[in-house]
From TrEMBL:
<dbReference type="InterPro" id="IPR023204">
    <property type="entry name" value="SP1917_dom_sf"/>
</dbReference>
<dbReference type="Pfam" id="PF09966">
    <property type="entry name" value="DUF2200"/>
</dbReference>
<dbReference type="InterPro" id="IPR014580">
    <property type="entry name" value="UCP033199"/>
</dbReference>
<protein>
    <submittedName>
        <fullName>DUF2200 domain-containing protein</fullName>
    </submittedName>
</protein>
Length: 120
């Protein structure tokens, strides 16, 4: 699936710190914890809690966030539809990575077990 240049640029410019509270609210309203959220983010990106806080404090955008990430080797196993896009068909790497994160957080909020989220 080809996304538009405008769509991809919009994702690249999004500041992670501005989206993080929405992730947190989404999972907490469904009974999940901030610890679980951090585990999911760390699984995908390699960022531990301290690294994540530093990125939030720096107010990095998604482009920098994913440039600094060490994407999990099993990230390609994340499939499905999120935000109207089929993840496995997205051609732009940054947009795909952002949708990976969205999908994992969505699965967490929907009550999936951590083993399933981590593609074990």
């Amino acid at each position: 699936m080809t996304t538009t240049q405008e769509h991809d640029a919009k994702i690249a410019k999004l500041v992670f710190a501005s989206v993080y509270p929405h992730y947190l609210k989404k999972i907490e309203t469904k009974g999940r914890t901030v610890t679980e959220l951090h585990q999911v983010i760390e699984w995908l990106t390699g960022f531990d809690e301290n690294s994540l806080q530093q990125l939030i404090d720096e107010k990095v955008n998604f482009q920098i966030f994913f440039e600094r990430a060490n994407l999990n080797t099993n990230a390609h196993l994340i499939k499905g539809i999120i935000c109207g896009y089929r993840i496995e068909d997205i051609e732009t790497p940054l947009t795909k990575q952002a949708r990976y994160l969205d999908k994992l957080i969505d699965e967490l909020a929907k009550g999936k077990s951590m083993d399933k989220i981590f593609r074990k």
